Amino acid sequence: MALTADVTGKNAKAAAPRRRPRTRVLSVGDKLFLAVLIGVPLLALLAFVWLPALASVGISFTQWDGIGLSSIHWVGLQNYKNIFTNYPPFWPAVEHNVIWMVFTALVPTPAGIFLAYQLDRKIRFSRVYQMAIFLPVVLSTAVVGFIWEIVYDPDHGLLNSVLGTNNPSGKHYIDWLGDPHLNLWAVLVASAWRHTGYVMILYLAGLKSVDPSLREAAAIDGANGRQTFLRVIVPAMKPINVTIIVVTVMESLRAFDMVYVLSGNNGSKQGLELLSLLITNNTVGESPRPGYGSALATVLLVVSLAAIVTFLVQNFRKERQA
Amino acid sequence: MSRGPITDRRTLLRGAIGGAGLLLASPALAACGKSNASSSGSGGGGSQVTFGSDGSDPTPRKAYGALTSAYTAASGMQVRTNTLDHNTFAQQITAYLQGTPEDVVTWFAGYRMQFFAQKNLLHPIDDVWAQIGGGFSDAAKKLSLGLDGKAYFVPLYNYPWGVFYRKSLFAAKGYQPAADWDSFVALCAQMKKDGLSPLAAGFGGGDSWTNLGTFDYLNLRINGYDFHMQLMGGKAAWSDPRLNAVMDHWRQLSPYLEAGASGRKWQDAAQSVFDKKSGMTVTGLFMGQAITDESLRDDMDFFAFPAIDPTHGQDAVEAPTDGFVLSAKAKHVDAGKKMLEWIGTSAAETVYAGVDPSNVGASTKADTSKYNALQQKSAQMIASAKYITQFGDRDSDPGFISAVVEPGFAQWLASPDDGASTLKKIESQRSQYFTS
User: Fold this and answer.
1) Which of B217, B224, B245, B301 has the most neighbouring CB atoms within 10 Å?
2) Which of B268, B399, B411 has its CB closest to that of A270?
3) Do B410 and A175 touch (CB under 8 A)?
4) Is B265 on the interface with A (CB under 8 A)?
5) How is residue A181 annotated by DSSP?
């Protein structure tokens, strides 16, 4: 009895230090600290993200000139009706956003992955190539826009001067940014120039973290370069692949500053309409229409949410199956 | 007035921040705006006045600097100037006037001033006009009145639009300025035959407003001032059959427009005239700001846009007027009024014109002895005009013009047809802008 009591006593003594930290976590100071830690960002999130987002959805059902609250009129779904039926730049903008996303997924993203894979093989001057390809990513997109504006200028631009197509009265005159059949592709090339470097650096970081023994094992099993890449490296890089897909979709939906610069501060340039530009056009300016702009923003919000939710659901479903 | 595309990262960010600020801050700011607008004329004294300027380009900036320091010298009043980028200023003016604006602010005459006056964002200055009224023509006075009949604006200068060309080129090729439509089209055809691009044009992206000059003049010459102003004010339909003739005449000019116009800036279009690659261009006197070699200025000339319908002849001149308003939320109302009174004198005009010679003083008492030939001719043309219009985007709702009309015309000019579908598209969106 005494022995067992002693043992339990010992046990109790031994257990006590383990239990004590748990009570300390719940102390008043800690609670306060946690409340601040969680509460402040939560409040900030509510105030700066959700409140404006919801207010924007609310305003999208009104007509308003932005001056005084008394001039707000409730118009129901009128703005949406106008957008879908009677706003010439809307459908081109949707189309261009889709083209942007497909192009970015099909051209610069694989190009970046390809370059990363090549650079990872420790070729000579690897660092120089890395730097050269990554350089545009360091610049802000607006600055990239200014650079390409100089390249594309029809009269004095680099491209037309090199091609000899800079004479307006000549036979061949290429108006890179003015021609509505051409300008979107010209801008996409500029965007791809930057995006390739971005994807490359992300992928390169991933490749560095792949366990070298995987490659060795693949080599011992007799796999060639292509097989090693597709069957071993790509599956091992799943987190990076997911990141790149998310980044690509995000960049396509939020495409704005480069086009804003290349279309001369005017989103309504034919051939270069994008949803983000139409929103800005209608909400910023001398006679703003916050109601109409908010309706456009809500459309973009719904599209973005649809894309993100679809992606997440698919991704988690695969995860569960695996 | 120099509406070059001043784009940089800062502009972009300011624009974005301004936009966000507008959305977030409007209700609160508007609320104070109302109470302030009624309790006018309170804080008056002090020895300083604040000045909000959109003269961010080098020439206007220097000219406004000369203006304010001359005022300080004349009155002992300190002027604190806040200069904002020109295009950003116009984009943010709505939020700016509801926030904490400077006392005296640069702005445009006509519809765009009247809009803010109607929204109680400007301070009436009838007492200023009682002092300065004698120095201005009736047309200038009319441009300074709000819809309620009170004065809100003090004009400083204006500049006419016309058909600009190089004298030496015309002399060498034996071209004559065209007074009517047929000779204008014939002149264009002749220039094309001579290997020139007849009409220089640059309406790339943000410069699509430059198209409005041609449209305004065609409409003024074909349908007259009254119809044009009704159309601009949102009172006439854009599907009105009278506009078909305008589009038809414009289509006749389209083969003579310089190639690549939709990707070019107006400054580059001007350069093509300076280089004698293009024969003419329809633009404003501000074209002179693109001149870098002063000897070129003497070789520039212009003629009035040709007459089309003899009933209207050339009776209207497009001459946008720039000047100053007093913001409704001004902190130094009396000091601001005193400054406006001084700006309304011919002495102030002389100071400004001494630095920036690409405008014409708005005051009838302005000193014209130092004017160059272009200014002389401009002043004459404006003085003899029966009607003075401001410009497409100043006589009308600027949102409607920039979001609907400008892109519509830019798109149409890419493949000009009879224009009916373009007009229909514009008309279908008109009601969204002109409701209140």
Assistant:
1) B217
2) B411
3) no
4) yes
5) T
Give the mutation candidate from A268, A274, A277, A283 for the B interface (greatest B CB count, under 10 A). Answer: A268
Asked whether residue B21 carries a pLDDT value surpassing 60, the answer given is: no
CA distance B382 to A196: 56
Residue of B23, B272, B405, B435 to mutate for A, most A C-beta atoms under 10 A: B23
Which percentage of chain A shows pLDDT scores above 70?
89
Alpha carbons A60 and A298: distance in angstroms, whole number: 7
Best interface-test mutation with B: which of A287, A296, A298 has the largest number of B CBs within 10 A?
A287
* pLDDT, tens digit, 9 for 90 and up, residues B383-431: 888 898 999 989 998 889 988 899 899 889 988 999 999 999 999 999 8
| Nearest by CB: A169 against B94, B112, B259 | B259
CB contact under 8 A, A266 and B206: yes
Q: What residues 33-62 of chain B have any CB closer than 8 A to a CB of chain A?
A: 33-34
Amino acid B13: pLDDT: 41
